[in-house]
From TrEMBL:
This is Transporter (CPA2 family). PANTHER family: NA(+)_H(+) ANTIPORTER YJBQ-RELATED, NAPA-TYPE SODIUM/HYDROGEN ANTIPORTER. GO terms for molecular function: antiporter activity. Its main location: membrane. Belongs to the monovalent cation:proton antiporter 2 (CPA2) transporter (TC 2.A.37) family. Keywords: Antiport, Ion transport, Membrane, Transmembrane, Transmembrane helix, Transport. Residues 13-371 form the Cation/H+ exchanger transmembrane domain. The chain crosses the membrane at residues 33-51, 58-79, 85-107, 114-135, 147-166, 173-192, 221-245, 266-284, 296-315, 327-346, 358-377. One of its GO terms (cellular component) is membrane.
Length: 406
C-alpha cells in the first residue's frame, strides 16, 4: 500500500513540475507531454528507479482512456464527411501499402519477426497525444489543427479496428461480430438523449451538473469506464472503447456541453492523463535500445516515411508547402497504439524485444521531436506563408474548408 503511494507521489511530482519547467525553459518550445515522458524515463526502471510502473498501472490505463475519450469528444461526424477526410483516408491506405512493402522487406532480411504489429504500428497517428500539444500552443482551431483532426482521427480509428480484427481475438469472425455489437451499442447510446430530452432523469442530471452531485461528470466517467470494460470483455483494444465513449458523449451529454468539456479537461489533464504519459516514459527500456541502437532511428524515420509522406504529397494541390510539412510531422507522431501493439507482439512471442523497445523509443522520440518541429514552423496568425492564407482558396487553385464548408 505504502509502496504504491510512494510511486504515485513521485509520478504526481513529475506531473506537477512539468508545466513549471515548460514555462521557465528558454524559448518555451518544449511541450509538457514531452517533459512528462522524459520525467517518466528518469524516475522509471531505466532511470533512478524511484517508481514502479506496475504500481500505477490501473491509473495509467484510466489516463489512457481519458486521452482517447477527449480525442473522441473532439471528433464530430461532419468532419469525417469532408473532402479533407476523404484525402486523409486515401493517405492512410497509402500508408498501409507502404508499410506492407517496407515491413515485408525488413521481414525478409530478418530485421523484424512480427509483420502485422510492426506494419500497423507504422500507420498509426497519435491524435490524442498531438491535440493537447496543439491546444497548448493555440493551434487546434487554426488551419493546422483543422487539417490534422481528420487525419489523426482516421490514423487512430482504422488501426484500432485493424488491431481488433487481426490481433485482438483469435477468431476474426468473432472480432467482426464484437466490433459490430459494440458499434451498435454506441449508436444506440448516441440516440438516448432524444428519448430522454423531456424525461425527468435528463432534467435531474442536467440540474445537478454544477452542484456537489456533479452528475454530468460522474455519468461521463461511468460511460468511459463502461466502454473500457465492454471493449475488454469483447476482446477489443480498450482504446477503441474510449474513443467511442468520447464520440457518444458529445451527443449524449445533457446541459452545457462546453462546461462538461472544461470539467473533463480538468479531471483528465489535471491528473489521469499526466499519470499515463509519465507511465509511458517509465516503460521505455533503455537497455534494449542501447543493445541495438540502429533500430530506433530506423523506426523513427519509417514513421515519417510511411505515415507522413503520403499526407505531404496528397494535399499538395490544396495546402501550401509549410502547412503540408507541419501536417506531415504531426501525422507521423504516434505513441499509445505503438505501446499497445508492442505489448501484443511481446505477449504472443512474435516480436523481438529489441524491436519492441526500439518501436516504443521511436514513438516517444516522435512525440518529443515531430510536433516540436511542426510548432516551430508556425508563423504568427496561422499562415504557412507570410501575408498569405495557409489554405488555398478557390481563386488560387481550389481547395475546401477542412470544416466541411465549400
Amino acid at each position: 500500500m505504502l509502496a504504491g503511494l510512494e510511486s504515485l507521489f513521485v509520478v504526481v511530482l513529475v506531473a506537477a513540475l512539468a508545466p513549471l519547467l515548460s514555462a521557465v525553459i528558454p524559448g518555451g518550445r518544449i511541450p509538457q507531454l514531452v517533459l512528462l515522458i522524459l520525467g517518466g524515463i528518469l524516475i522509471g526502471p531505466s532511470g533512478f528507479g524511484l517508481a514502479k510502473p506496475s504500481e500505477i498501472e490501473l491509473l495509467a490505463n484510466v489516463g489512457l482512456g481519458f486521452v482517447f475519450l477527449l480525442a473522441g469528444f473532439e471528433i464530430q461526424p461532419a468532419i469525417l464527411r469532408t473532402r479533407v477526410a476523404g484525402t486523409a483516408l486515401i493517405a492512410w491506405i497509402s500508408s498501409c501499402v507502404l508499410a506492407a512493402v517496407i515491413v515485408g522487406g525488413l521481414a525478409a532480411v530478418g530485421f523484424v519477426h512480427a509483420y502485422v504489429p510492426v506494419g500497423l504500428a507504422l500507420t498509426t497517428t497519435a491524435l490524442g497525444t498531438v491535440l493537447p500539444i496543439l491546444r497548448e500552443r493555440g493551434l487546434h482551431d487554426q488551419d493546422l489543427g483543422r487539417y490534422f483532426l481528420p487525419n489523426g482521427a482516421i490514423g487512430e480509428m482504422l488501426p484500432i479496428l485493424a488491431i481488433a480484427i487481426f490481433l485482438g481475438v483469435n477468431n476474426r469472425f468473432s472480432a467482426l461480430i464484437s466490433l459490430a455489437a459494440i458499434g451498435l451499442l454506441a449508436l444506440a447510446l448516441a440516440y438516448v438523449p432524444r428519448l430522454l430530452r423531456e424525461r425527468r432523469v435528463a432534467r435531474i442530471i442536467a440540474a445537478g451538473a454544477d452542484t456537489t452531485g456533479q452528475t454530468t461528470l460522474r455519468w461521463s466517467v461511468l460511460l468511459l469506464l463502461g466502454f473500457l470494460v465492454l471493449a475488454a470483455d469483447f476482446g477489443l483494444d480498450v482504446v477503441l472503447g474510449a474513443m467511442l465513449a468520447g464520440m457518444v458523449l458529445r451527443r449524449y451529454a445533457p446541459g452545457n456541453v462546453h462546461a462538461l468539456e472544461v470539467k473533463l479537461d480538468a479531471v483528465g489533464y489535471g491528473f489521469f492523463i499526466p499519470v499515463f504519459f509519465v507511465s509511458a516514459g517509465m516503460g521505455v527500456n533503455l537497455d534494449s535500445i542501447t543493445e541495438s541502437p540502429a533500430r530506433l532511428p530506423v523506426f523513427l524515420v519509417l514513421l515519417l516515411v510511411v505515415r507522413g509522406l503520403p499526407v505531404f504529397f496528397l494535399y499538395r494541390r490544396t495546402v501550401r508547402t509549410r502547412l503540408r510539412v507541419q501536417l506531415m510531422f504531426c501525422t507521423a507522431t504516434t505513441l499509445p497504439l505503438i505501446v499497445a501493439l508492442t505489448e501484443i507482439g511481446l505477449r504472443n512471442g512474435t516480436m523481438l524485444p529489441e524491436n519492441a523497445a526500439a518501436l516504443t523509443g521511436a514513438a516517444v522520440l516522435s512525440v518529443l521531436v515531430y510536433p516540436a518541429i511542426a510548432v516551430a514552423l508556425e508563423r504568427p496568425g496561422g499562415s504557412s506563408v507570410p501575408g498569405e492564407p495557409a489554405v488555398r482558396r478557390p481563386s488560387d487553385g481550389g481547395g475546401d474548408d477542412p470544416r466541411g464548408r465549400p
